[in-house]
Design a protein that fits this description.
Layout: E1 7-8, E2 22-23, E3 28-32, E4 45-50, H1 62-68, E5 75-83, E6 89-94, E7 99-101, E8 104-106, H2 109-115, E9 121-131, E10 134-143, H3 153-160, E11 174-176, H4 190-204
């Protein structure tokens, strides 16, 4: 539990990329992989927070304490985030959200983080879509205003191939949308995205 918050969009901050803001003063943050190792800037990792606003323990719930709070006070939030060089954060996934691609469990945060490096992409969500009896990654992309009409879906499909493993290629396609549905916290509404994917899959039948 984090009282009040740990990351905030500062007053006057101008940003239309979907960032949830910057780290608050007197707060520490790490983004870590599944092995607990800190990831590089621009790479997705579980958001871990430490500071005076973080709870010490869960009341009478040792299992939750063991799973979520390290002995030195780091809270494992379960959110997967990406941080850029300026210190802005994006919440891109929940740890338990996975795509099943060719029998491989894949986090959508990985292709999403890669796509956010594209100079013309403002926001993105990746979801699995059923094509030919298999689940394939599909990206719903918001293009920056100045780039509209200058980039095509197939350009993005080709661009990402040099940045992700083959099973993460956007075989399910790239769809341009006005806005990626998100909660007030900045988290992608995965339920809405799954509904979109089901709808689109049915239209392709």
């Amino acid at each position: 539990e984090v009282a009040t918050g740990a990351i905030l969009v500062s007053f006057g901050m101008k940003d239309n990329t979907g960032s949830v803001g910057e780290l608050l003063p007197n707060t520490e943050c790490m983004l870590v992989d599944d092995d607990g190792k800190e990831v590089a800037i621009g790479q997705p990792g579980e958001l871990c927070i430490r500071g005076p606003q973080v709870c010490l323990r869960y009341w009478r719930n040792e299992e939750a304490n063991k799973d979520s709070i390290s002995p030195d006070g780091w809270l494992k939030t379960g959110d997967v985030a990406v941080r850029n060089k300026k210190g802005y954060f994006w919440i891109v996934d929940r740890k338990r959200v996975r795509l099943l691609l060719n029998s491989l469990q894949v986090s959508p945060a990985e292709p999403e983080a890669a796509l956010l490096e594209h100079e013309h992409i403002a926001d993105v969500a990746v979801i699995g879509i059923n094509l030919h009896e298999e689940e394939s990654p599909r990206a719903y992309v918001t293009i920056q205003d100045l780039a509209k009409g200058k980039v095509k879906p197939e350009d993005i499909q080709e661009w990402i191939k040099s940045r992700v493993a083959k099973h993460r290629y956007l075989v399910g396609g790239v769809i341009f949308v006005d806005e990626v549905p998100k909660l007030a916290s900045g988290k992608i509404q995965r339920k809405v995205m799954r509904e979109w994917a089901i709808r689109d899959s049915e239209n392709l039948q």
